[in-house]
Structures are given as C-alpha cells and as structure tokens.
Specification:
The complex is a heterodimer of chains A (about 400) and B (about 300). Chain A has about 400 residues and is an alpha/beta fold. Chain A contains 17 helices and four strands.
Chain lengths: ~400, ~300
C-alpha cells in the first residue's frame, strides 16, 4: 500500500510538472475565457442590438411613384426600429453612392409594390432585412386586396392581426436544448480517454524502452506499478476536466448578462446537475477500462514507435463507438437498436449510455444494469491487464501473439 | 547471514531456462555468478528478487524461505536504464522510497551516496545530460541507497574509466566489510578474481562448476605445459597437441596429466629448453572451458 502511494504520488507529480499537461490545461481555460468574455467586448453592454445594424444607420426607400415610397417608408419604420428609414428620390446613382460612402447602410428600390432591389455594401450573414421587408410587403398587399374585395379597412386589419398563440411542453427531455451539452460532454469524454489512454501506454512503453522497467519491477509489484500509473492518469484527467468545466461555469456566470438570450450557450449551462454525476461515473469507469487496455498494450511493445500499430485495435473500437454515438445524436434517434446494444457493451457504454440518459428517457433499471456491467468489466479487464502487464514488461523483442495473450490471462 | 539457492527450475512456455540451479552466498563475502549471455543468470536473479516464482526449488535466507518484503535487496541490472528525462535527485529518492524508505531517509541517503560517488554537482540535472559512466554511477546509487542486506551487481564495471572503477571497487569492498551478501555477475574475470572467493558457472540452465576459486584452480587438470625453447619450430612439428603461445613460448596439451614427467624428460633430453612449466589456468580459461560449449562433457 505504501508502495502504491509512492508510485501514485510520483506519477501524479509527473503530470502536474509536465509542460504539455500544464500547457493544454492553460490553453483550454484561456480559450474558454476568450469565448465566454467575447460578448462583453463586442456588445459593449448594449443588450438588445443583436442584428448587424447600428441604431443610427440609415435605410433608404425609393420608388418611381413617390407616394408608394412614402407609404412603404411609413410601414417600414415601426418594424426596422434600428434604422432611420428615409424615403428618397428615385435616383439609382445617388443611392448607390450614398451606400458606397456609408452615409446610408442599405436601400430598397421598388419597381412596383411587389418588386424591389435591395442594395447593401457588405451583405452580412445576419442580415434579415429582406425577409422582414417581404413580410411587411406581403401583409400590405394582402390588406390592399382585402379592402379591394369590399372589406372595411378595420375588418381587414382585424383579419391581418389574427395571432396564433402556442406553447411547447416537453414531457421527456428537450433534444434541441440538450444536443449541445451532450455533444460537448461526449466529446470531452472522447478526448480525455484518447489523450490519457495514450499517455499511459506511452509512459509504460517509455519505461520499457529506457529499461527503467528492469529496476521498477525488481523494486515494486507490477500491479502497484500499473494501478499507480493508471489511477494517477485518472486523477490528472479528472483535475483537467474540473479545471475546464469549472472555469467555464465561473466565466459564464461572470458574463451571464452579456449572453442575453443566446440559446446555445444558455442551454449548455442550464444542463441538469444530475447529468454531471452521470458524466463523472461514466468518465471514471470509461477511462479506467481504456486505461487498463492501453497500459497492457504499452507493456507489450519494446519500443515507443511500435505503440501506434499495437494500440490500433483498441483505438478503432473507441473511435467506432464515438461515431455511432455522434451519428445517432445528429439523426435524433438516440434510442435506436444499435445505441441500445452499445449502451450495455462496456467498451461503448460510457458514451452510448450517457448520451441516451442526456437526450432521451432511459428506465432506471437499464442505467443500473449498464453501470454494473461496466464496473464488473473494469475489474475483469483490470485483472487481465495486470496479468498481461506482468508478463509483458519482461519481454523484449518478441511481440506476444493474441493466442499468447489469451494464454497469459487465462493460464495459471 | 547466508543466502542459499536450492535446486531452482524455471520454464518459459516450452523453453526450460533453469534446470536445477544451486549455490550458496555468504555475508562478508562476494559471490561470483558467471555464465554466458542467455545461460540463465538474470532469470536466477529475478527469482531471488521475487519478480516471478520458480517452478521448483527454493530461495532460503538462513534456512528460511526469503521474504522480499522484509529483506532489502539492491540490484544493478545489466540493462541499465532510469528515467532519462527526469531530474536525478528526484528519481533516486523515488527508487529508494519504492524500496521502503521514508522520503526523509531516502533524501538523506541519496545525498550521502551522491557525495560518496562524487556526483553531487549533477544532483539537479536531467539524467540524459550525463555521460555513460556517470549515468552508471547514478544507477549504482539505486542499488545501494536503501541500505540493502543483499546486493546484486550485474556487470558493475562495464563502461567505467579506471578512476571510477577504482572508486567503485572501494565502495564494493566497504559494503562487503559491512557484512553484506554481494553477488557479482560479470564477464570481466579480473574483477571476479579480485573480489570473489566463490563462484558458480551457469551453463545452459545448469551449474557447470562451483566452489572456491583457489580450490577450483588447484583441482583443474594440470595437463598443459608452457615451453620456452630456441627450437620452437621443431617442437611444433614433432608434437601433435602443440601450438604457439604468448611471446616466444609454445603450449603443449598432454594426453593425460600423468604423462607430465615423461614428456618433460623427453623434451629436456632432445631439445634445447630454456624453460618448462605446468600451465596455471586463469579464471578466464576455466570459464571458457566450462561455459564455452554447452555440448561439451562437463568435468569436475
């Protein structure tokens, strides 16, 4: 036990003193900080200007028929509140010039009441002026036609003003809202497992190729060595995850008012707390399973260069399960048969079951069964990996075949 | 204190590596464990250190099975290697702590050994920045820092310059004088002859020869004659088992040691002989004979 503690603290210190580890963590926190503080600097405290226009920009309205241009300008004013809507003479040259020299931001030039050309200097992605104009023009034209067909102006207004009220009640989970945070968490799970899995196999292979292993195995029990290394990696991964998620929550709360009604960001930070608990469970169990496998792989190669090929099967299983989860998520069908099966297979269940919990309603007994299978597999794979590790660390040159590995695990 | 290895057997898969290894190493003495590469030395050492168990036989310390959790063993593996990219002091403390020392004890002891081996100036450097010989000295500290009762040194002198070799010799002699069991494994026979009273030669998983070095030498077949003569060419032409030896001398192998007197007489009568003597075998000769060809019939 003392030996295990010595190894654990040595391996942990390796992570916390590692420049790469510190660098990645600081980088991630910095990126999150930049993203979360972004609206504070771009918006400058103005909460409700979410369109691209500044409040004093000018919108020009022009038509061959002067009364038409005045009429349209009047009906545009209450809608385009961010603009100074001005009716101007029908002079294309001067209109284009004023847009070019930025004295006006955009212009609607009408041929008739239902046909126009929209002039703008740089068309922004967020520019919805034409859609808004279409709506206004359509309603003007409908109301005109209603009046022409003999209805009174009041009656026409009434018909036009009919509003439909609706409300959405989500009885299960809201897939639109939880898509983003589920995706972020699954992706974090994926990154952490791949990163730390490879760190572990790398570190084992390094000890082997530098022959430090000769001394290590004669100084400590192989099981202490392996578990010390893997648990240190899990703790380091957990620390990193807490740093990243913790700092995002802090930064979000500092800038909450600036984010206003940004749906994506708000949905991410309004995720249910119990999902964090599930995240933690599946993160730890998932990382352990893969860490054991990566540790065993690291112990079987003689050189670090051989690691990539040797780790390929495990990495492929892992990438495949990630893809199944991501495709199921974007198809919206997270409860399809494949996902259901995957959520009970220990290699895929950390991501699959977590996604199903987050994006659909899963019976409690299914969650319990999945977690129990996962915990049992952690023990079985941990035990098997320790056996492979024990044999693997002393073998040089000969790469053990699959048959030999099975023999090692199930032999005496 | 006495470490007794009794009848060890070990197989890896189909391959039988140890076929009944037995020897005894005593405290206040160094024991030489010899054998060619792949003969089974490292496997024997690993069984002593409980890295894996043996299929048959036992390792006894003062008559009782050895408990590696209680008894401390220091090991300098033939394949050297530590963490190349880590600071020397911290990894030495780590290895001493792994072997059961508290952090404080470990730091104190590592500092002592760095001083003793004249390495204090490299304390905070990364291991990979050191020369091979200096790395070897650092490695030696991992075998000694936790104050082990049994010290196993595999090729301790390879790669050391004469000054460092001298330093190491002194250290080893000190450790022997402290009453430790020192097991030496080396191919540099001069060091074995200098330190060890007893040796065992392992050939192909078996003990080919073991015992006290001087006794082994005394009992070695005295069937070779060294001859110095002005008529070397004539002797070489007339005697079958005769070949040139160092400098101007030739060596003659007798059919049987009993022929010695008769051959000597013949030689002195028929040729102009300056010197004739029975060849004293070196440990090297003995090693080559016993470990050289595993198919050769083993003689004792």
């Amino acid at each position: 036990m003392k030996q295990f503690k010595t190894i654990l603290s040595f391996e942990l210190a390796n992570y916390f003193k590692d420049k790469l580890f510190i660098g990645i963590t600081v980088f991630l926190v910095a990126v999150i900080a930049v993203v979360m503080f972004f609206p504070r600097f771009t918006v400058g405290g103005d909460d409700n200007s979410s369109t691209g226009a500044n409040s004093n920009s000018v919108m020009l309205i022009s038509a061959k028929d002067e009364t038409l241009s005045k009429q349209i300008a009047e009906s545009f004013k209450p809608v385009f509140t961010d603009y100074n809507v001005e009716a101007v003479d029908y002079d294309l040259k001067s209109i284009k010039a004023s847009i070019k020299n930025e004295s006006a931001e955009c212009a609607f030039v009408f041929d008739s009441s239902d046909s126009y050309t929209y002039y703008v200097n740089n068309l922004q992605m967020t520019d919805v002026n034409t859609e808004m104009a279409d709506e206004i023009l359509k309603s003007i034209s409908i109301s005109d036609k209603l009046i022409q067909s003999g209805l009174s102006a009041e009656k026409a207004q009434e018909i036009m003003g009919t509003a439909i009220s609706y409300e959405v009640q989500t009885l299960g989970v809201d897939q639109i809202n939880n898509f983003f945070y589920t995706y972020i968490m699954v992706f974090a799970l994926y990154m952490v497992i791949v990163f730390y899995g490879q760190m572990i196999s790398n570190s084992v292979a390094m000890e082997k190729s530098s022959r430090a292993m000769e001394l290590l195995i004669t100084s400590a029990k192989p099981t202490s060595l392996m578990f010390g290394k893997i648990i240190a990696a899990c703790l380091a991964g957990l620390t990193q995850l807490i740093c990243v998620f913790g700092s995002s929550i802090i930064f979000y709360n500092l800038n909450k008012s600036y984010w206003g009604d940004n749906m994506i960001i708000n949905s991410i930070f309004n995720m249910p707390v119990e999902l964090f608990a599930y995240m933690l469970i599946f993160f730890i169990l998932g990382l352990l399973i893969y860490a054991f496998m990566y540790g065993a792989i690291g112990s079987m190669v003689s050189k670090v260069e051989e690691l990539n090929t040797a780790a390929m099967p495990v990495t492929l299983i892992f990438i495949a399960s990630f893809l199944v989860v991501v495709f199921s998520m974007s198809s919206g069908e997270v409860d399809n048969l494949l996902m259901k099966v995957c959520s009970f297979i220990p290699f895929t269940s950390p991501m699959a079951m977590f996604t199903r919990i987050a994006m659909s309603t899963v019976p409690v007994y299914e969650i319990i069964i999945s977690v129990i299978i996962l915990i049992a597999s952690v023990f079985v794979i941990g035990f098997g990996s320790a056996k492979i590790y024990k044999t693997g660390v002393m073998l040089y040159g000969t790469k053990p075949s699959f048959k030999n590995i099975i023999k090692t695990v199930f032999g005496k | 204190m006495q470490l007794e290895i009794r009848d060890l057997y070990k197989s890896f898969g189909e391959k039988q590596v140890l076929k009944g290894i037995s020897f005894t190493a005593k405290d206040y003495h160094a024991f030489g464990l010899l054998g060619r590469n792949g003969a089974g030395k490292t496997t024997t050492i690993r069984i002593i250190m409980d890295v894996f168990s043996c299929d048959g036989g036992e390792v006894l310390l003062d008559g009782k099975p050895i408990d590696c959790n209680k008894i401390k063993i220091g090991y300098l593996p033939e394949e050297r290697g530590l963490y190349p990219k880590k600071q020397i002091f911290s990894q030495l403390v780590y290895f001493a702590a792994l072997k059961g020392m508290s952090k404080k004890e470990a730091e104190k002891s590592v500092n002592y050994w760095l001083e003793r081996l004249e390495m204090t100036e490299y304390k905070n450097k990364k291991l990979e920045t050191l020369s091979k010989g200096n790395q070897q000295k650092i490695q030696l500290i991992t075998a000694l820092a936790h104050n082990p009762q049994i010290i196993i040194l595999d090729e301790p002198f390879s790669g050391l310059d004469p000054v460092n070799a001298m330093l190491l010799k002194d250290v080893v002699k000190e450790e022997i004088a402290k009453g430790k069991i020192v097991i030496f494994s080396s191919h540099q026979m001069n060091y074995i002859e200098e330190f060890c009273n007893e040796i065992a030669i392992i050939t192909d998983g078996q003990i080919a020869l073991s015992g006290d070095i001087s006794e082994i030498k005394r009992n070695y077949r005295r069937d070779k004659l060294i001859i110095r003569s002005t008529q070397n060419t004539r002797i070489l032409n007339n005697f079958k088992n005769c070949k040139p030896f160092e400098k101007d001398s030739i060596i003659l192998t007798l059919a049987s040691p009993d022929d010695k007197k008769q051959v000597m007489e013949t030689l002195t009568e028929q040729y102009d002989i300056d010197e004739i003597k029975v060849y004293e075998p070196s440990l090297n000769d003995i090693f080559i004979e016993y470990a050289g060809d595993s198919n050769k019939e083993v003689q004792r």
